[in-house]
Amino acid sequence: PHHQIVQQPSSSALATTPSSTLLLPPVHDDGLQYIVDRSKNTTYLKGRFLGKGGFARVHELTDLTTGHVYAGKIIPKSRITKPHHKEKIAREIELHRNLVHLNVVRFYHCFEDSENVYIILENCSKKSLVHVMKHRKTLTEPEVRFYLRQLADGLRYVHGARIVHRDLKLGNMFLSENMTVKIGDFGLAARLHAESKVTICGTPNYIAPEVLSRQGHGYEADLWAMGCIMYAMLVGQPPFETSTLAETYSRIAHNMYVIPQWVSRPARSLIRQLLAPDPAHRPTLDQVLKHDFFTSGFMPVSLPPSCCSKAPTFA
Ligand code: ADP
Fold this sequence. Notes:
This protein has eleven helices and ten strands. It has helices at 2-6, 18-22, 83-96, 129-136, 141-160, 209-212, 220-235, 245-253, 265-274, 285-290, 292-295; strands at 34-37, 42-52, 57-63, 69-76, 107-112, 116-122, 163-164, 173-175, 181-183, 190-191. Adenosine-5'-diphosphate binds next to strand 2 and strand 6.
């Protein structure tokens, strides 16, 4: 459909109405930056800067033919210098591109030009749970239930596709305009084959003990991370945080953490199950969702965006 609009022939030489100029291919003298996907004949207007990661800078990109706003991950080819950088990006694209679920950041498309690789993603306008935690310090149990249920739903889908995320953390739990959790950043993810043990790459924040002791990553490592996330949301800091990486790793290896007494009994019980040192003892996602923490407390149907900065009062 956009072809028609972009290539719309002018019926007269004076056909430069504002709407048709907006839809014309890029002009470079108006101070705005355009990105053209030649494979689809689509032009995006580069907008607000949203954040930066390892290689990428992420901007709002507006598709000029539909007006739809995406989050565009822009990776300069000049930064892809080593073969393993290229492999990492290729793997992220390969694993993420076919995932379609309400609680997973939607991957729409990717393309490249001479300068960059572009990944067109669902825009998560409420940023991530890191931003929420910065304002809030701790969350109420109903909120934690609300966010974790969606994390569990999305993760069940991802695991069903035989993919381990391997870097779940508050910053990779993005939030859409209406406060729906979207799992994102598949940069450290891996596809699990029957008996594969995949080795460490990167430094995931919530690294599980079996990964540290080099026994490899299974789906259970994502449940460990979910335990760390749950702890952090309720307590306001990660369970194994110390001032040095070595000390943190030592605490993880010895399963040394303390849950404050003011955390409810069901919440403490679920955290302990998720943080079981032996991966085989951790619950499955179905068991997580059947735990008392989810079944015995209030579960909001939705949360207002005001929850990003102040605690809700549940009537
Ligand atoms: P990297 O994989 O290189 O670490 P990320 O995927 O973490 O890059 O993205 C970097 C930053 O860009 C994020 O921390 C976030 O602020 C922003 N961002 C990434 N994806 C989205 C998105 N889908 N919607 C909104 N902002 C995003």
